[in-house]
Amino acid sequence: MSDEEHHFESKADAGASKTYPQQAGTIRKNGYIVIKNRPCKHWEFDRLLKFPPPRLGNMDTLSVTSSVPSSHNCDVPHVNRIDYQLIDISEDGFVSLLTNSGDAKDDLRLSTDESLLRQIKEGFAEGKDLVVSVMSAMGEEQICAPKDIGPK
């Protein structure tokens, strides 16, 4: 045996996949699917299963359509939802969020969805204590819903 010490730095997520295969015919409305390497919400479908529009990441104003035979497998993203307390909204549209560990998270931009944007900005301006739900999939994150937890 050698007296040398070996130090390994782990920078990976242990090989965990960001997606899993699922038969296209079993994906239901409001489920998730990967289209053009982006996580998307299954919005409506017909016999060939068309999937518009993407609802994760910064693509919420775009519409992508994909036709997949219902018997074929397609990729489905692992989707997580985490709640953060809203601390501040900057002039350039970024938000400061408080994580469960007490650290600040400053890398998320407000949604371009007008209704959601209005709810967050109005609630914050009124001095409400807001918690925002953040959906994440395939390395992308997006604020999806605010919750009022009372006045500040």
Automatic annotation (TrEMBL):
Protein name as catalogued: Eukaryotic translation initiation factor 5A-3
GO MF annotations in UniProt: ribosome binding; RNA binding; translation elongation factor activity; translation initiation factor activity
Region annotation (Disordered) ranges: 1-21
InterPro entries associated with the record: IF5A-like, IF5A-like_N, IF5A_C, NA-bd_OB-fold, Rib_uL2_dom2, Translation_prot_SH3-like_sf
GO biological process: positive regulation of translational elongation; positive regulation of translational termination
Family label: Belongs to the eIF-5A family.
Keywords: Hypusine, Initiation factor, Protein biosynthesis
Biased composition annotated in UniProt, kind: Basic and acidic residues: 1-12
Origin superkingdom: Eukaryota
A Pfam match: eIF-5a
Domain Translation initiation factor 5A C-terminal: start-end pairs: 78-147
